[in-house]
Write a structure and sequence with these properties.
homodimer; alpha/beta; Alkaline Phosphatase, subunit A; 8-stranded mixed beta sheet; 5-stranded antiparallel beta sheet; 14 strands; globular
Amino acid sequence: MKKTLLIVCDGLGDRPVDGLTPLEAADTPNMDSMAKEGICGIMDTVLMGVRPGSDTAHLSLFGIDPFRYYTGRGPFEAAGVGLNLEEGDVAFRCNFGTLRDGRVMDRRAGRSEEGLNKLAEEINNIKIEGADLIFKKAAGHRAVLVLRGEGLSSNVSDTDPEREGSGYNESKPLDESMEAKKTAEILNEFTEEVVEQLKDHEVNQRREGKNKLPANIVLARGAGMKTSIPSFMEKYGLSAACISATTLIRGVSREVGMELIEVKGATGHVDSDIGAKATAAIKALDVYDFVFLHLKGTDEASHDGDFESKKEMIERIDREVIAPILREIKDATVALTADHSTPLNIKQHSADPVPIAVLGDVRTDEVKRFTERDCARGGLNRIRGLYLMNIILDLSDRIKLFGA
Amino acid sequence: MKKTLLIVCDGLGDRPVDGLTPLEAADTPNMDSMAKEGICGIMDTVLMGVRPGSDTAHLSLFGIDPFRYYTGRGPFEAAGVGLNLEEGDVAFRCNFGTLRDGRVMDRRAGRSEEGLNKLAEEINNIKIEGADLIFKKAAGHRAVLVLRGEGLSSNVSDTDPEREGSGYNESKPLDESMEAKKTAEILNEFTEEVVEQLKDHEVNQRREGKNKLPANIVLARGAGMKTSIPSFMEKYGLSAACISATTLIRGVSREVGMELIEVKGATGHVDSDIGAKATAAIKALDVYDFVFLHLKGTDEASHDGDFESKKEMIERIDREVIAPILREIKDATVALTADHSTPLNIKQHSADPVPIAVLGDVRTDEVKRFTERDCARGGLNRIRGLYLMNIILDLSDRIKLFGA
């Protein structure tokens, strides 16, 4: 039996711009050596033609069918900030935003964290009839809202308008149930109460004094209920750890039963100390059967539509992450892939399959470079993300026979 | 409409050892000619990343979804020795073993068949309250036990400890049902009665006199209930025949409605007269619409971890089976593949896909050799075993339109 390392570069896949994708344009001798000595392929992380969210993609990569277990992003954000949900809870992903003259002028309150911890504490003390309420600040301008009580539903619309310049939305029930009606009402009452409390709050006076946008509204989206996801330990008999600086990905990993490893300097942005993450992954493999290493910078560059920044991030990953891993890790199964493509021309996730290379006891193929198009000619052909765990655990000799 | 021949080399697929798989290292001009003149691909017989048993793999190759129809190996072993199960029967695959001082010292009673027919007859006469009992000797040291009666369940654990040196296991119910409790009790009572009857049996005194291990216990495993599998005739409108010397495979084939053709000299081992099986398959194709030819030796060599023996078996199949088939059979669809990979480095089944080549009215591709890695570049790409029957019957023009 071998150890298994899964490396996911968020949003790595792309489409050609002037003939080359960022991955094709990048100088990546270490990734290419994985392609050369391993087996390659392309992968639909969720399903052919489905544009995966980061949450549904990772669930699928962990062998959990998102069509069965995913109800919304909220519960994973909640898990990512360390909240333990109970059956029946409804969780929302939230932003602090800036409201001016009844309009959302900035959905992220100028991305300034100043005073947000204090505001979050006060919001957490708001009382609404019909449900208990937990509110916790997450990274940056983000937060999580959990409603707890009898008869709630996640089938309600967002209050976040997803664009700026208009008013915030009233949450509406998305089905005829009493539960959805009740939940939407509670969310609306909560939102009005927040606006009332933050309007002239001293934190916001201080922020404005420093020429920062006030954080005077909480915008909620991605309602989801807790579902009972089978744990890694149950499903695969594995001890597993996650290295990621992204709240959502940490939440998904925690929900499937991984332990979270903290790495100093890991930010989830292009400035992250990814070398420290690689070192942590190498060390973690001594302790855990399975280690998942998540690198976010590639996706960030993609959403910004910045070819050079994405190419540079890829080159940094090649030098600072893949090189030490290839040098230090012997006799493990190592898979390198992405959770989805984020093509620069659309600046959002797409359904284009992602490249994958697997090192270990594999049928090495003739692919020489780790790129979207080279990998499409690899020995794995085209695989589905939901089966990836089984495929790599089979190579690590950790899968039981089905039948006899 | 054409006739269809499916050739399955058990456990054929492998991983490279010093750069080559046994199939790559073997000299296989006839298999290669099938690859050259046919269409190739790789196949997950059950599902990507699933390690198939021989039973689940063959069910899948015959178009029967094992996730739906497979409850355990027992019923197929029973069918393989010609027992007609009834709905509600629970069947076990058994070994004669050797018990010494309360410990299982040999799970196969030294692999000697001496006197086992007589012992089996007597065991068949054992009466246990609560169920009727049928016990029948199979090939070598193997046997089948069927429990028949009201309120039985296959959800019970094995008495076979699967390793030597410890005692045999007490069967335990695997759920809370009365049926599982009752079945486990009956199996335990049966086992104790067998131990009691065989302890000083004259057959065993004779065996020991000849320096052979006594056969003084029956170890049961793979409990399964009869499920109503759709027959080949119903499902595809085909008359079908199976040529195999392996009890389990004969059982699966019989359960899906194939007729069993006996071939003298076919043993299911590396010494089998596989030329005689090829001749039988060629003749059978005059009579049946569909013929399934199963060759076991490749898997046996794999479980022994013997590269040379596996390579030689492949070369024998090439010369003694594929050559005459290509010479004699005209105008049929002929598929050559495996039920699963059995890599030499792990000596057990793996989830690595198997190579496949299909001759007939096909879109010939550029693959020139029948190997795991050449076939991965073939025109079929990567297919799922469950759909193989439909794919090859479509080429034989025996499939009805779905829709209009």
